Structure formats: C-alpha cells, structure tokens
Amino acid sequence: MITFENVTKTYPRQLKPALSAVTVDVAEGEFVFLVGASGSGKSTFLRLVLREERPTSGRIHVAGRDLARLSSWKVPALRRQMGVVFQDFRLLPNKTVAQNVAFALEVIGKPRQSIRQLVPEVLDLVGLHGMSTRRPDELSGGEQQRVAIARAFANRPALLLADEPTGNLDPATSVGIMKLLDRINRTGTTVVMATHDAAIVDSMRKRVVELDIGRVVRDQSRGVYGYTH
Amino acid sequence: MRAQFVLSEVSIGLRRNLTMTVAVIVAVAISVAFLGTALLFRSQVQTMKGFWYDKVEVAVFLCGPGSDAPGCAAGSVTQQQREQILAELQAMPEVEQVYYESQQEAFEHFSEQFADSGIVENVEPESLPESFRVKLRDAEQFRVIATNLAGRPGVEQIQDMREVLGRIFRVLNWFTLAAAVVAGVQLVAAMLLIANVIRVAAFSRRRETSIMRLVGASRFYIQLPFLLEGALAGLIGALVAAAGVVALQRFLVEDVLRREFTFVAFVGWDEVWRTIPLMLATGVVLAALASAVTVRKYLRV
Fold first, then answer.
1. Which is more confidently placed, A8 or B102?
2. In what helix (H) or strand (E) does residue B69 lie, and over which residues does it extend?
3. For burial by CB atoms within 10 Å, which of A11, A78, B151, B257 has the most?
4. Is the CB of residue B6 less than 8 Å away from at least one CB of chain A?
5. What is the pLDDT of residue A229?
6. Cβ atoms of residues A46 and B214 within 8 Å
7. CA pair distance B59, B70, nearest whole angstrom
8. Nearest residue to B145 (alpha-carbon basis) of B64, B189, B107, B91
9. What's the rounded Cα separation, in Å, for the pair B120 and B104?
C-alpha cells in the first residue's frame, strides 16, 4: 500500500533533513504505528504519503502509484483513496455532523442519492447514531473525532492516515477511538497512525515504526512504544 | 459536477462578504459605465461627422460690390469669370458636384437658419456673397481646390467648412479619449479590488478549502466558486452600468438632446444595444480574470 525507498526530505532553507534515507513498506490491510518524539519526522512522513510534499530524493509508491511520476491533476484521485484524521479534528463549525460528512462527499462529486445513503451508514459505523443534526461545538472531543473519522472513512478509502488522533483526548476516550480505528482496519483498510501515546501503542500490539531525527530506528511487527519514554 | 453545490458556495461567499461585494459591484459599475460612455461618445462623434460632412462642402465665395480681397480689385464678379470658374471646377476630377448659390438663395438660407434671432431684418440679399458650393469626391481633397482657385479674379474666398468642424471634433475626440483613460484606470482599480476580495474570501474559507484538498476535491471544485463569485460580482456591476447607459440614452439623449438640437444627429438605440454586450463581456471577463489570477496564487491544490 505504501512503499518508501530511501526517501529523504529536506525542507527549503533548512540544513537538516526532516526524513533521511527512510525505507518502509506497509502492506495492504496493515495497522502501523508511527512513533517518535516531536520533530522526529512523523508528520513529514504522512505529508509525503498525501503528496502535500514531495521528497528531495528517493521513491514513494502509494496505492500502486509512483508519486514522483504522478501529475498534479491526478493528485485529487490519489487523495480520494485515502482518508485523513488530525489531532484537531478540523470540522466545519457551521455545519452539522451529517453536513460535515456529506461535505467531503459532495466536493468529490458523489451523486446526492449515494450521499444520502452513505452518511447515516458511516455515522452508525463510528457510533454517532442519532447525532447527525448536532453541531461540532455541541459534541465532546471524542465525538468530534468520531465525526472526523466518519468523514475520512465515508468514501471507503483503502488507506486511513491518522496524525495523533488521540492527542487531544483523555485516556478513556482514546481507547474508544482506538477500538474504532481497529474496527476500520478489520474491514481491510490500511491504517497508519502517528502518535506518541505510549499506553495506546503498548495495548494494541501492532506494528511499530519508530522515527528519530528523521531516521527509522526501529520497525517491529508487534511492538510497544519503546523503552526510552 | 454538482451545480447546486457550487452555486450555494458562491451565494454563501457573496453574502458572507457583503460589503466587499457591494464595493466590487460599484467599482465595476463605474468603470464599465465609463467604458460604455467612451464607446458611445466615439459613435456620437462619428455620427456627427457623417451627418455634418455629408452636408458640408467647400464654399467658393465670389466677389461682390463691397469685397476687398485681392482677387476682387476689379469689382464684382463678371458673368464671364463666373462661367470660367464653374467650368474649371467641373473639370476637376476631385469634384463630385457643384451647386451655384445666388445672393437671393444665400439670403433665403440665412433667413431660415436665423429665423428666430432678428438679425435677418438687418441683412439684405445684396450684403451676402454669391458662391459655388462644391461637393468633393474625397473630403480630404480640399487643398487641391484651394491652390487652384485662390487669388483668381472674381474669387473672394475659399472656405473648407470641414476645417471649422474639425476643431470641434478634435475637442470631442479628446473627451472620448479622456473617458477611455478614466475607464481604463477604473478597470485596473476594480480588478485589484476584486483580487483583494477573492483573497479575503479564500482566507475566510481556508478551513473548507483545506478539507476539500485533503479529501481529493478537484481543482475545479475548489476554485470554481471563487471564480464564479468574481465573475458574478463583475456581471452585476456591468449590468448596473448598462442600466445607467440605457437611462442616459433614454432620458438625456432621446428626451432632451434630440428634441432640443434638431439639427444634430445623435447616437441611436442600435449603437446602445451594440455597446452593452461589450460592456457586459468586459465586466465579466476582467472580474473572472482577476479572480483566476488570485485563486491560482492563494488556493494551492
């Protein structure tokens, strides 16, 4: 699903690379934790997968596409195959829960008929049944993150990227979110989650890729967060 | 492409930024109105030129009893001189037609033209010169006539009526140019304003556009609402300007000028209808262009 071959990314006007010589292979259907301290390159990794950034050197394949050779007008098609979730939810405050999810489908040109069907379906899936007319500011943090996950998953992407999805949530709520992500992963969706929540990583026992100052220092198939933290 | 989605985004955008939208509409309206006025003024000058140049000829005034021009030293024009001048005029290839205007006819035209002013009572047929009125094939050929006949015995003066009018038309052309320059400056200002409005709009909707980008909305979906927003504001402004021009034609030209100045030709509705599409196109295209440039700069896909 994701292949990084010797990928280095140096941002403009910076001396040290954010990622250096990273080689990672994420298979279809995998659940991978991306761990490491702030500034270790987790977000850069996700931005490269989204093709928000382009690597300075090295090759990246995502969902069978060579990102170096992907022309910019095909980037939207690539992004329709993935969903993204952030620490700060990024919901539209003036839209209801259902409208927030529908928005993501409308703007990629889904027919209204299927939007009407997909939105309640995915809201049920994330456990927000009956909340479709609420606005984000009437929801708890965990519920807001569920809306964000529903939005990311509404189009049934093959890949779900999560950038510290539990960063703003208390431990109990975080467990609920992790259960949801695990369930989504069980439907066959590949999940890559950047986090520094040690308790979660330790409890899930999934593959762990640890980054440190832009380098992969550990890649364990059923790992824990680490020993140094 | 879901038209409804894009249209609702456009209307939200325009309403969210209502004061700026009004500013854009006013700016576009003023600039496009100036443009339309300049275009119509140009047609007006052309219409007047055609109207006057059609009527105006070269006048070859012949010596009368009181003339003191050098060619009139021998007194009034003689019958022989008159016939010779006529023959020469008719022989010139540049001349299309020659009319003779006697003193009596000159007096009649004069009385007609100044019927209201009372000058007529002080003028007698004998005090007006007789003349040949020459219509040229090409109005620019006046010099040929002048150099051939000037100073000839029996010729008092040769006058190109166009020269008198030419001065008026030069002034009118300056007006046209001034209106065009104002229109141009205003259009640039309007475009800058539109660019700013779109920039603000892009900023105020950055949440939406960033989500659209992430879920894989195409450039079309992301940028089109902003382009339409600019174009729509431009169109409304241009429509206001068009309404202004129509009102000007209706209430100033048709109701007042055409009635008061019956001897002048004015631009008609056909010119107005020909100018309006141009005004609308200018408003829409320039507004869309300004938005497109801004959107490309501020909305990365």
1. A8
2. none
3. A78
4. no
5. 47
6. no
7. 18
8. B91
9. 13
Look at residue A94 and give its three-state secondary structure: coil
B210 to chain A, closest Cα gap in Å:
9
User: Which one of B208, B211, B216 has the shortest CB-CB distance to A76?
Assistant: B216
The H-assigned helical ranges of chain A are 42-49, 75-79, 97-106, 112-125, 141-153, 171-186, 198-204
Rounded Cα distance, B246 and B256, in Å: 14
DSSP codes joined into one string, B97-140: EEEEE-HHHHHHHHHHHTTTTSGGGG--GGGSPPEEEEEESSGG
Estimate to the nearest angstrom the gap between the alpha carbon of A88 and the chain centroid.
Answer: 13
- Phi and psi, residue A155, nearest 5°: -90, 10
Residue B77 CB: number of other CB atoms within 10 A?
22
pLDDT in tens, B139-161: 667 777 777 777 777 888 887 77
The CA dihedral of B265, B267, B268, B271, to the nearest 10 degrees, is: 150
Residue written as tokens 């140094």? Answer: A228
CA distance A208 to A221: 6
Q: Is A22 helix (H, G, I), strand (E, B) or coil?
A: strand
Touching B: A residues 139-198, CB under 8 Å: 151-152, 155
pLDDT tops 70 at residue B114: no
Mean pLDDT of B16-31: 88
Q: Which two tokens stand for residue B261?
A: 């100045």
The b-or-e profile of A71-87 (16+ CB within 10 A means b, else e) is eeeebbebbbbbbbbbb
- What is the rounded CA–CA span in Å between residue B40 and residue B242? 12
Please tell me the distance from the alpha carbon of residue B275 to that of residue B161, in angstroms, as a whole number. Answer: 31
Predicted pLDDT at B153: 78
Give dist(CA B282, CA B288) in Å, integer.
10
Question: Do A166 and A178 touch, CB atoms closer than 8 A?
Answer: yes
A190-195 and A31-35 as β-strands: parallel, antiparallel, unpaired? Answer: parallel
> Span B87-115, mean pLDDT?
79
Residue B42: both structure tokens together: 């140009």
Amino acid occupying residue B272 = V
CB contact under 8 A, B207 and A92: yes
Q: What is the pTM of this model?
A: 0.71
Provide φ and ψ at A216, rounded to 5°.
Answer: -80, 115
Look at residue B149 and give its three-state secondary structure.
helix
Q: How far is A93 from chain B (nearest CA, A)?
A: 10
B194 and B287 in contact (C-beta within 8 Å)? yes
Of A78, A106, A155, the CB nearest to B2: A106
Residues 182-221 of B with CB under 8 A from A: 207-208, 210-219, 221
